[in-house]
Amino acid sequence: MDACDLSGIRYAVNATLHDNEASFAFDEKCKEQGITVIHAVNLGKAAFLAVEKPKGYPFSEVVKKGSDDFRCSLGKYISQYGMFWQIPVPWVDEAIRHYSEESFPQLGIGAYIAAGYCANILANLTEGKEVRYFPKFYLSPLLEEI
Q1: Residue 65 CB partners (closer than 8 Å, separation 6+)
Q2: Three-state SS string across the chain, please?
Q3: What would the pLDDT profile of 7-35 be if each residue is shown by its tens digit?
Q4: What is d(CA 145, CA 60) in angstroms, rounded to the nearest whole number?
């Protein structure tokens, strides 16, 4: 069996740091084989999740080549999305300002929140229930209003 043969797989979770080409190469392989990918991102005190359809809008569009750290790029995406839909996310804007020269912290709480959401999204997908597909997303901060 080919190491990249993912036949029989319907859903995959990309919980990498999204900081190198391998992460997005995985997404491309899934896309080629018709696999829906859930992107789970630890934002320290929050979790971000995006569900990418094989023929849908690519999650890789969040990252601009040669630009910010992935999490800062993602933070800017979240902020702009919030502004467009008139749902401000001030804690994200503050995090972008604070971490623009560093990386978002990798706190365990963000990973736990992301894992819980992943389990819920996977259950909904397998049961045929509605989920938000990228460019829509799930954002769950700890003790913050969104």
Answers
A1: none
A2: CCCCCCCCCCEEEECCCCCCHHHHHHHHHHHHCCCEEEEEEECCCEEEEEEECCCCCCHHHHCCCCCCCHHHHHHHHHHHHHHHCCCCCHHHHHHHHHHCCCCCCCCHHHHHHHHHHHHHHHHHHHCCCCCCECCCCEEEECCCCC
A3: 889 999 998 877 778 888 899 999 999 99
A4: 27
CB atoms within 10 A of CB 27: 21
- The span from the CA of 80 to the CA of 75, in Å, is 9
pTM above 0.90, yes or no: no
